[in-house]
Target: Lrp/AsnC family transcriptional regulator
Amino acid sequence: MSQGGDVLDPLGCRITAALQVHPRASWSRIAAVLGEAERTVTRRGKELLESGDVRVVGVIGASGVVIVRARCQVGMTHAVAAGLARRDDTVFVYATSGEEDCVAELQVDDAHLADLVLDDLPSVAGIRRLRIDPITRLYRSVREWRPGILTPAQIGALTRLRQGVYQPDGSSVAEIPDVHRAILRILAHDARTPTSEIARMVGISENTVRRHLESLEANHQSRLRVVVEPSLLGFKAEAMVWVKVPPSRHDVLVEELLKHSEVRYAAALGGTNSLLVNLACTDRLALHQMVTRSEWSALAKSISVTPILKATKRSGSRLGTVASASYLY
Model:
């Protein structure tokens, strides 16, 4: 696995960006789109996956999502972040600096939100102050992040399904059929598992697997994502940005914001901050310019930047460990 200061080679970055568009694309298809030799792309792609620098995982679709901000007791931030990352309902967990020590996204439906807010999270050891805000609208998830590495034509050639950003509504999740649960369990560990292998493991035909995969994705029950540290793609400065914006300028600001490839994630919150934005920039100067000199920032009432120190979980996958997917057993 690459060290923190390393950046992937140009071909490695382009292959990773291709997987972000189509996580299960064949090496031959990626090679054709990139204009590279299939053997070269296959070799480098397998190296990326085997090294752990890049992972392709499946995340089960959420019915409701909240953002958790925790202020921790001195010396307890690492323990709190690790504890939150071990939970099956967390999607990402970041240790941060600034007003918050830890920021996380949790999946929870409305029926269980009160228990989470009043009993579950307040009992976590090491947390001194806690704030939980529901996401009212998702504008961009990490799955839709396109880091500006590929051309629009290349992205178009790899795009298979053109769907809008999934909007969690807080409703209770329907019971998952056993066959879907088995497939989701496999995807949670390795979303590039060949169709033939999934068929063998589940005990159904390849054509049936393909139909189930299409159904799971079309119904937003399966969300395939690439897990990669932004720094490996050349984005060394990552931050969570809390934005307050007058309601009359909200839609215009979001429209301008989403024009930037540095935006990995953007969501409207139900609390005092109108928006939460995850930015990945090439360096601190670029981050500074993004939040002070861009057209969207001029529309904001206030902006608070919380640098990310360490990610302990991304896209439902704990970093440095094998995803458990225990919620699917």
